[in-house]
Write a structure and sequence with these properties.
Elements lengths: L2 E5 L3 H13 L3 E6 L2 H11 L3 E5 L7 H8 L8 E6 L7 H6 L5 E3 L4 H12 L7 H11 L16 H11 L4 H8 L3 H15 L4 H10 L9
Parallel strand pairs: 1-2, 1-3, 3-4, 4-5
Helix pairs in contact: 2-3, 6-10, 7-9, 7-10, 8-9
Length: 217
Amino acid sequence: MTRVLVADDQALVRTGFRMILAADGITVVGEAANGAEAVAEVRRTRPDVVLMDIRMPELDGLAATRRILTGAPGEPRVLILTTFDLDRYVYAALAAGASGFLLKDVTPEHLVAAVRTVRAGDALLAPVITRRLVERYALRGAERLHRDLSALTPRELEVLRLLAAGLSNAELAGRLHLAEATVKTHVARILAKLDLRDRVQAVVLAYETGLVKPGAN
């Protein structure tokens, strides 16, 4: 059973999300109207996934995400709710460990699929969208990811570069003449070696270490 916490300062949004998720067998274990409540509710309810709005009173979603994703065992996955390109803080949220973002006008089917995707351990963000966000906000004071890339093999470094260029696993497989299962194994090893949550953080790291430069093809 997937357990979800909905954090949004609009009661109508919270109610709508609760109804959509419940209709598909997903349990909403709590709601929060601001970031401080979200942090407290995460500690109380131990959800698998948090739907986190960015713009909330008292404590915004970015600060709440940082407090929630402390690296402690059993931490939830955080999906940021945003108005697409309008939130300056999306990049910082991804760097802090969020597993992706959803549009506020997400369809019911997409919402359910998104929750299940991140619950399974995957990131909900197309690589090309990640790249655009990183290029726009990289090196502008967001929380940095510090990792040593020396542990990666030449092949793994190549895979990481292509991830940051916006290629999907299928596209990576075609470019490198590998089976898609082999590419998935390389990606998994990169994440494990660098202690990263998902491919979103891998793309962020590729930019912040200088492995890929903003604007590079």
